[in-house]
Amino acid sequence: MKIKALFIAISIIAFLVVPAMAADVSSDPLPSWNDGKTKQAILDFVAATTTKGSPDFVPTEARIATFDQDGTLFVEKPLYTEFVFALDQIKLLYPKHPEWKTTPPFSTILSGDRAAIEKLNPKDMAKIVAVSHSGMTVDQFKEVVRQWLATAKHPRFHKPYTALVYQPMLEVINYLTANGYKSYIVTAGGQDFVRVYSDDIYAIPPERVVGTAGQTKYTYGQGGKSELVKLPKVLMVDDKAGKPSAINLMIGRRPYASFGNSDGDQQMLEWTEAGIGKRLMMLVHHDDAKREYSYGNESKIGRFSDALMTEANQRNWNVISVKDDWKVVFP
Amino acid sequence: MKIKALFIAISIIAFLVVPAMAADVSSDPLPSWNDGKTKQAILDFVAATTTKGSPDFVPTEARIATFDQDGTLFVEKPLYTEFVFALDQIKLLYPKHPEWKTTPPFSTILSGDRAAIEKLNPKDMAKIVAVSHSGMTVDQFKEVVRQWLATAKHPRFHKPYTALVYQPMLEVINYLTANGYKSYIVTAGGQDFVRVYSDDIYAIPPERVVGTAGQTKYTYGQGGKSELVKLPKVLMVDDKAGKPSAINLMIGRRPYASFGNSDGDQQMLEWTEAGIGKRLMMLVHHDDAKREYSYGNESKIGRFSDALMTEANQRNWNVISVKDDWKVVFP
Which of A288, B56, B192, B264 could be joined to A323 by an S-S link, Cβ 3.0–4.6 Å? Predict the structure, then answer.
């Protein structure tokens, strides 16, 4: 009886204190966003799906949000971070592969011709990623990535790549988390690569990173110890129509909110929208050359085609203008 | 200041009340287990990895446990539940495929010859599963499975298959959950199949089910609505050496505890053991024909070979005897 009384006391105190705190903390959960239609869409979505009694209420366990990474959560220009890593790896591996000097696409990389490198096609890029991401164990790969991230700097902002995250998007992740949502990264980038830093920079743990993945081979190393070796063979490509498939494989639930920035995210947003009830579809549009970059239909990396813009307008998806919607870009 | 004072009050009350409750609830977290070496191994593992200051302490976010399903969490004899489902589907689909009457392995199924069906090899079984699990959308498949589970009964126990879970293993999952562990199913069974009921019967949500998976195709159905169609093509086989690869793909962390019951789980346990610090490796050994089934080296389904038993003994893995370690088998 004594314990029961104590519990009643705690409940009463909690009842009095918690709403006061919540009101205080949530006064503006998105301080880096300018007021307007876009910000309001996020606030309305969260209110509609998390308020008990709302016709669009979603139970906590089903609250799933998916975020593309490159161009949606962090800078993807002038080259995808992971691709810069791959280029550096090729240079490191070159002494063991003198034949690369005359073998494209490796010869292009070794030439150092930046313009030519930026023009490499997806097939060449895939070849470079496959070679630079394999032939070692999963644990060794993580260590190589960790070391590279510790020293590599972005050519324009002169900061580590992991510092170039979008502050307004971090606020969206935090706001969703505070409202019972689980956020996943769904990226065309390499799953094993992004998992090295996702928890540190986005507070998204490795098991919530869905990405392009290679095959691994189980084997026995020194002393008969189990090892997983990365093979230069693709298991799944998590881009375009591959994104809904990867979401189904890795999560097994349909997202209620999806965030992207390019043609690679179109199907993920369609798949999200096709679910029952209220859903949130958003696309970051890079239109701020001064603070970051400005690119769209013409861009090879992170292409936001005119066709996608038309679809977004027709379906009433929310297009985020970096210039108009974001007070700051970086933390 | 007033709120701060209230918080201090709550903290003091919580400090007094919570340990008293914990002691009460955890008096025996594994009541269906007989006292002995096996039960003690589970208790010791949890204490060692969750007690602050312990040399083997594991932070909450890294507390991952993986469970095989068939034969580890529920009955797999005389046939895997999913295979029984597949057989029933083949019979339903037969009118559209009259050629099956004379085409093995379909003809074997349609003959109804139970002994011949139980002797089908893995390749034939894979063919049957592929055909019965494809040609529809992911959502349609879930509905078909749901309807089948609602009426199908086990031939010996005359209960729904989902009622034939092992009570002692449910207690292990609950005990691990109460101690901050996240439990995953890692099964050679179909991921989409197991996800239909895993939350209901094990309290393991779909995103924590890792299984054999087929490819899916993103397409547009009626009214241009997004759909994912299941293809009769395998993406990954989550068995034997495929289990560590699937764990790496789907979770991205190494488990601290792994539970299996057959040769299909050997590599998962080796992979678990190869991690740093204290790990728990357990194998259910079915030696109780009276209450359930007795099988081992000779069995085609759920084979627990003599070689695996030798490895388990050499590595000091824990072998669970259904007869000796479990007070009850079913809830």
Answer: A288
Q: Convert the pLDDT of each residue in A157-197 to its tens digit.
A: 999 999 999 999 999 999 999 999 999 999 999 999 999 99
Q: Residue A19 has what pLDDT?
A: 43
Q: What is the mean pLDDT of residues B189-215?
A: 97
Q: Which residue of A has its CA nearest to B213?
A: A249
A107 and chain B: CB distance < 8 Å anywhere? no
* Angle between helical axes of A138-151 and A81-93 (0-180°, round to 10): 110
In whole angstroms, how far apart are CA B258 and each of A114, B172, B203, B224, B265?
49, 11, 17, 44, 9
- What DSSP designation does A276 have? S
- Residue of chain A whose alpha carbon sits nearest to that of B243: A218
Name residues whose C-beta falls within 8 Å of residue B282's C-beta, 6 or more positions apart in sequence. B38, B41, B42, B257, B258, B259, B260, B317, B318, B319, B320
> Which chain A residues are Cβ-neighbours of B191 within 8 angstroms?
249, 252
Q: Is B47 helix (H, G, I), strand (E, B) or coil?
A: helix
- φ and ψ at A60, to 5 degrees? -50, -45
Residue-wise pLDDT tens digits, B82-123: 999 999 999 999 999 999 999 999 999 999 898 898 888 878
Distance CA B5, CA B14 (A): 14
At which residue do the structure tokens 């020194």 appear? Answer: A222
Q: Quick check: B231 pLDDT over 50? A: yes
* CA nearest neighbour of B300 among B161, B109, B156, B117: B117
Q: Does residue A273 have a pLDDT over 50?
A: yes
**Residue B100 CB neighbour total at 10 angstroms:** 20
Q: Which of A136-145, B127-136, B289-298 is the least confident region? A: B127-136
Dist CA A269 CA A251 (whole Å): 16
- What tokens were used for A195? 């998992």
Restricting to A residues 180-199, those with a Cβ less than 8 Å away from any Cβ of B are 191-192, 195, 199
Provide mean pLDDT across the span A277-281.
Answer: 98
Within an 8 Å CB–CB cutoff, is residue B274 touching chain A?
yes
Q: What pLDDT does B26 receive?
A: 55
Determine contact: A137 vs chain B, CB below 8 A. no
**Looking at the predicted structure, is the pLDDT value of residue B261 above 70?**
yes
Is the alpha carbon torsion for B255, B257, B260, B265 positive or negative? positive
Chain A CB contacts of B226 below 8 Å: 244, 267, 270-271, 273-274
Share of chain B above pLDDT 70, in %: 92
Per the CB < 8 Å rule, is A3 touching B13?
A: no
SS3 A67: strand
CA triple A269-A272-A278, angle to 5 deg: 120
From A270, which residue of chain B is nearest by alpha-carbon distance?
B226
Amino acid letter, residue B147: Q
Percentage of residues in chain A having pLDDT higher than 70: 92
